[in-house]
Design goal:
With 508 residues, the chain is of the alpha+beta class. It has 19 helices and eight strands. 45% of the residues are buried. It comes from Cephalotrichum gorgonifer.
Length: 508
Amino acid sequence: MSPEVALASVSGLALVLGLWLLREYQYGKKYRLPPQVPGVPLFGNSFQIPALQQGPWAKDLAAKYGEMFTCKFGANTWVFLNSSRVVNDLLERRAAIYASRPPFPMTQGIMSGESRIVLMPYNERWRMLRKIMHQILSSRQQDIFKPFQDLESKNLCWDYLQTPDRWWSANARYANSVIMSVVFGRRSMLDDPDVIELFETLELFLENQQPGVNIVDAFPILDKLPKVLQWWRPRGQRIFEQTVNVYKRELDRMEEKMANGTQRECFGTDFIKTEEVKNMTEVQKLFVFGTLMEAGSDTSRVTLGQIIAGAATYPDWVSRARAQLDEVCGNNAERLPQWEDREKLNYISAVVKEGFRWRPNIAEIGAPTMLTRDDEYEGYRFPAGTVFTWNAWAIALNPGEYEEPERFWPERFLNGQEENALKGHWAFGPGRRVCVGWKVGEMNVWIAIARLLYCFDFEEIPGKPIDTMSIPQLTKHTAPFDVKVTPRSVKHEELIRRDCAYAAEVRY
C-alpha cells in the first residue's frame, strides 16, 4: 500500500470515528432505545454476531433482554423485535414509516447495481417494481401456476423414486422449474448447471447480507471514498458480474427462441414488450427477472427440506397426515392428491404452515427495515434511520408464543385458519414488505408435500441424527442433512411409475 493510500485510509477511519462519537453523544441526549447489547467501540456488536446461523445467537439475547434489544453494527443501530406483539405494533400497524430499507453500498450498490428490489428503499421505484411482481405472483394468478406445480411435483416424486439420495437437489429443481416455466417458458432438469449457479449467486448474496460482513455496509459513509480506495469493490463487482451473467443467460435464451419462433408464451415474453421495460436500464430489467427466479425458488426448496426433517425427527404427526391422505386418496395408493382435494386435506395445510414456522431457516433474524421518521413507542424514542428486524428464530421458538415450540406439531394450526397462509407465523415477513410471492410459495409446498407424504417414508439414518437446530442456511449444493427416503409400499411405487414417469420426459 502506497503512503498516499495509507494516509487516505487512516483519514477515512478517523472521520468515521469522529462521526460515530458525535452520533453517540446526540443519541444519548435526544433518544431512548431498548436495552443495548454490550459491544466494542466503533464496531459495536459486529464481531459478536456469527457469520451464519444467527438465529440461536439472537434467540439467546431475546431470552436475556426481553421483547426488544438494541445492537450496533458499525454505524447502524438495530432494534430486534422479539415478540409477535411488538412486530404487530410497529412493523404492521405503523408500516408506513417502518417499511424502508437502510443503505447497503456493497450488497445493493455494488453487488446488485442498486436494482435488487428486496433491498430498495420504500419509494416510487420500489412500488413500481412491486406492482410488476404482484402481477405475476399474486394469489389471483394461482390458476396460472397450478398446471406447472402439478407437473413438476409429479417429476419430484419420480426423482425421489429414482435418485432418493438426491432428494435435496430434486427439491431445488422442483421449486426452480415452477417459476422458470411461468417466467421463461422452460423447465429445469435435475442437477441443471444453470440452476446450481443461480443458487450459488443467491447464496453469495445471502452470505454478504449478514450484519458485520462488509465494512462499507456497516459504515455507509465509506462509500464516499474514491473508488480506487474501496478495497471491497473488486470482490463485489465480481459477484455482480457473475449474478448478471446468470440472469442474462436466461433472457438471451428466451429472446433467441422468440426470434426463431419456438418460444412459449410466458411472463417474460409479455413483460419485455411493456412500457415499464422501456424506462428501465438493462441491469434493472435483468434484476426483475433475477428476483423472480430467486424468490420463486429458495423459500419452497428450503421449506420442503424443513418438513422432511420434521417428518424424520417427529414421525408421530406423519401418521396423522397419512390417515387424512389415505381417507381422501385411498389407503392402497389409488391416486395422487390433487388440487381439488385441498378442502378435505386441512391437515396438510397445517403441515405447510408448521413447516414455515418450525425453524425459520431462510431469514433467521428477519430482514432489516428502516424507520423513516422519529417515532415513540412505550417510553422509547427512536430516531429516523434506526433499523428494525423481527427476531424470527426467537419468536418461532418462544414457548410464550407457541406450545412446545421445538416440536413439529401441525395441530397448532388446526384452528380454522389453515388456509390463511400468512396467519400464525412470520416466514413471509410483516407489513408492506411481506413477500409478494407468498401464495406461490405456499402452493408450491402444499402440492409437493401432500404427494411426498402420501408416497414416501422419511427416516433418520442410524448414526447420523438430524440436528434440527443447526440445519445449514447455506448448503453449497450439498445435502443439508442425511435422511433415508423410501416408497411407503410397492403399491405407492407402482403409483409413481404409472402417474409420474411421463413428467420427467416432458420438454419445453
